[in-house]
Each structure stands twice: as C-alpha cells, then as structure tokens.
Amino acid sequence: MNQTISAMQRRNLLTSLAAAPAMAPRAPAAASLAYFTETAMPDIQYRTQPVGPVEVFYREAGPADAPVILLLHGFPTSSHMFRDLIPLLADRYRVIAPDLPGFGLTRAPARSTFDYSFDNLAHVIGQFVDVIGLRRYALYIFDYGAPTGLRLAMAHPERVAAIISQNGNAYLEGLSTEWESWQAYWREPTEENRARCRAALTDEFIRSQYEQGAPAGRVAPDGYLLDQFFMHRAEAAEIQLDLILSYRTNVALYPAFQSYFRQHQPPLLAIWGRNDPYFLPAGAEAFKRDLPKAEVHLLDTGHFALETHHQEIAHHIRRFLPA
C-alpha cells in the first residue's frame, strides 16, 4: 500500500510540474540579473593617462557627474587594493584609483632619470588630477597614499571636500617601534642601513603585512601575491629603498599637515585596523586634536583593513560623505 501511494504521489508531482508555465522560473532570474548588472556590478574602466614621462594606470567607476573620491594606495601595493571597495561606492560616486609611480601598472622612467621621492609622487599625482580635470574630490588615503594625498591637500585645499584616512598616518604617535630600521636609515643613509631595510621587501614580509592582526582565514592571497610579483621586477627593490629613505620627508612634514588640518578643518573620517603593527590607533585618535569633529572608528583587523572589512568601510564612507 505504501509503495502504491508513493507511486501516485510521484505521478501527481510530475503532472503538476508539467502543467506549470514553462517561463515561470525565469522572472526572478531576470530580476536578479538586472540587480547585479545595474546595481551591484558597476562598469569599472581600466585606463592609462600620460603625465610627463609617466604613464599613470588607474581604475575608474561611477557616474561622470557624481562627487569624486580619489583613492591613493600604499606600500607595497597598488590600486588593486581597492578592487572590493570600488563596486560598493560606484553607484553614488565617481571613484578614481591611480597606481603611484613605482607601483602596480603605472609606467615610469628608470631611477637614473626619475626621482623616486614623495615630493615627486605627489607632483605626478597632482598633474594627473589636473589632466583628467578633477576640481573637487574627497581623498581616501592609506599608508604611502597619506603623505602623497596630504601634499595635494596643502597645495590645493579648496579642492578637498573631505578626507578618509585608512591607516594613513600624520602624527608621531602613530609610528610604532617597527619603524626603527627605517629610522636608522633616515638618520644615517649608509649602504649598511639601506641593506637592513631590504627585509621589508621580501615575499615573507609582504605577506605578513596583509595577515598580521587580521582575522584568521579572511585574507585572500591575491593582494600579497601580486605585490610580491611586482617587487621582483627590475629596479623595483631599489626604487622602494629610495622611497623608504624619502619617507623621512613625510615625518618632517607632519607639523605642516597638522597646520593644514587646523586652518582648513576638512571633514575627516579615520577608519583603521586597530591591530596594525606599523600605524598605531593613537595615530587615528590624534586627528581629533586638530580636527575636533573628526570621526574615528577602529576595526578588529590589521594594516590592510580593506582585505577583511571592505563592506564596513564602504558603509562608513557612504554615511560620512554627502551623496
């Protein structure tokens, strides 16, 4: 009897399925496709822009007439670090992320004919901003992108609508003891001290920058493997060592950066990985000294906070910036 009932149930089920309209399941699928193509999957463009002797590679997404966010990456990465953030902002903002000279896919001259210093990085990005016609933008600054972007802000404070600092330091309180070998090189730029800084360029160190302080199992290998690849290119290590020495000029400019904050009071959102071994949370809190209205949020992750918390960071940016 049970077998007979089972057979009848199967026949009834097959009959009902056969009678259902053939196109019925496709409407939700089409709606989902429309959502992902029109809302969740913005069209990201990959472009290059000549700037003097440099060919700047950059990513761009979002409406051409929308408010602009200029994303500036850090060491030792590139605009690739923003791969997950850009789609979460591009429905509302025009998002532009260039590779700095010496990083990623930007093509720049050899060391013999090009000065790899932070002054020159800022000069190139400043020209890039002019060439593509940006007159007003919010700055997203991370690591090396901080002293680069803050030079732009000091040169043209009227252009900066707001600053988002993600582990982008501008205060001595933010520097940890991990900087000691670099500081020794700044004080005495000998070949011996330069050689000690090479430890920061190894595959092992690059990976540790991504994983240290981040939730276990949450960091994809894409970012650090790409950075490792770029670091093995001709002259890459020497270019990075030149920039490590030039970093002392950034620390010397901290008082000027802070004076810019006090004078112009740009809206500032500091959103940091609290477990960053290089830029301490005290560096984020220090912004409040010169910018009393600054927002500070500390996330339970490391230096490369976007690798694990891009959704949280995008949420804070969308709430913080005007649409």
Overview of the structural elements:
- A hairpin with a 2-residue loop joins strand 1 and strand 2.
- An eight-stranded mixed β-sheet has the order 1-2-4-3-5-6-7-8, with helices on both faces.
- With 323 residues, it is of the alpha/beta class.
- The N terminus is likely disordered.
- The longest helix is centred in the first third of the chain and has 18 residues.
- The protein contains 14 helices and eight strands.
Helicity range of the residues? 40-55%
Strand content: 5-15%
Sketch the major β-sheet.
Answer: 8 strands, mixed
Question: Which class do the helix and strand fractions yield?
Answer: alpha/beta
What is the strand arrangement across the widest sheet? 1-2-4-3-5-6-7-8
Helix-strand string: HHEEEHEHEHEHHHHHHEHHEH
Oligomerization state of this entry? Answer: single chain
Report the total helices.
Answer: 14
Number of E strands: 8
Radius of gyration (Å): 24 Å
Mean pLDDT: 91
